[in-house]
């Protein structure tokens, strides 16, 4: 029997609701397939922890995570704490501490889900966005001076390193190569950002030479938003900087029906450290504590976790269960226009798995 050690960090808001549901689903999977087990260790980090101790997670909090096979994360964000504190104090501390430089976000219109795109047929929207997750616009470099005075200044510096750009682009080309279409779109903004993004383009040209069987094109980030809406079938694998991909992937999630469905993986492709899996949505203050959250984004993130752990058959089984459930409109939560509760969705997925 193989036992996977999973760090479970629900965080804040609906993160505290969807992560326990995901554990139930994984345990059900293990019950049906006893050759695999999951051993969860829980970490109560986030807004409540901050209120008690003045920090989102302990300074040496990465240590107990280091020996885990994977991290399951809910969301960070509390109505009473500034967002830059919750984000940098928890999620980014883990992403950066474990050099999870490739953020992978698949987008597909699942069975039974309606897209706001009028002319998009099933199968025409099947993307994976690869987001640079360790530097760029979110490097954290910058500062403020003369605070509160009329001459106040503030800066956020975008840092692009050759190593950082090359490794994420190489990862994206490899991912594109593994998908049937073998096509990569490199998102850029080298017309306006004339240093870092120009280097980004140059490196894409070099890395592409190692992948002769992958076709690729380049698109400016603003034009890319229109292309996602008007010609979704022209895109497949996409690579973009930290900020650009952050924005594009929320658009992608909305086009696929709801933010509540979209999953993501923060990967250390070299497996020096544990990777982290989470829904892309945040704490959803407007629905927290009501049992209305859509847990599908978290379940799909668990599929990505199983795949990354090498449990492809289990991942496929869970994905099939998810798609069976989304196909039934009676099991749609409110974000999808339905009336189902989170627990209805969980129970239905567990029922599918246990068949
Ligand atoms: P959000 O994702 O929390 O919510 C946006 C909208 O989508 C809300 O109307 C919400 O109800 C809905 N929604 C999101 N997930 C849903 C789900 N699973 N089921 C049903 N509806 C869902 O984004 P926001 O409002 O911009 O941010 C709220 C807080 O979350 C902020 O503090 C923000 O910083 C934080 N946040 C954290 C993460 C993260 O930890 N990865 C990501 C995004 C936002
Ligand atoms: Mn985002």
Outline of the structure:
This is D-malate dehydrogenase (decarboxylating). It catalyses: (R)-malate + NAD(+) = pyruvate + CO2 + NADH. The protein is an alpha/beta fold.
Descriptive report:
The protein has 355 residues and is an alpha/beta fold. It has 2 domains: 1-100 and 269-355, Isopropylmalate Dehydrogenase (3-Layer(aba) Sandwich); 115-142 and 155-256, Isopropylmalate Dehydrogenase. 39% of the residues lie in helices and 23% in strands. The chain is built from 11 helices and 12 strands. The strands form 2 sheets. The chain has a 10-stranded mixed sheet, sandwiched between helices. Strands 6-7 form a two-stranded antiparallel ribbon. Helix 1 runs parallel beside helix 11 (342-354) and helix 7 runs parallel beside helix 8 (242-255). The longest helix is centred in the first third of the chain and has 18 residues, at 15-32. It is globular. The two termini are 21 Å apart. The relative contact order is 0.16. The mean pLDDT is 96. The structure holds nicotinamide-adenine-dinucleotide (NAD) and manganese (II) ion. Nicotinamide-adenine-dinucleotide is lined by residues 14, 75-77, 83, 87, 91, 259-260, 278, 281-287, 293-294, 297, 333, 335.
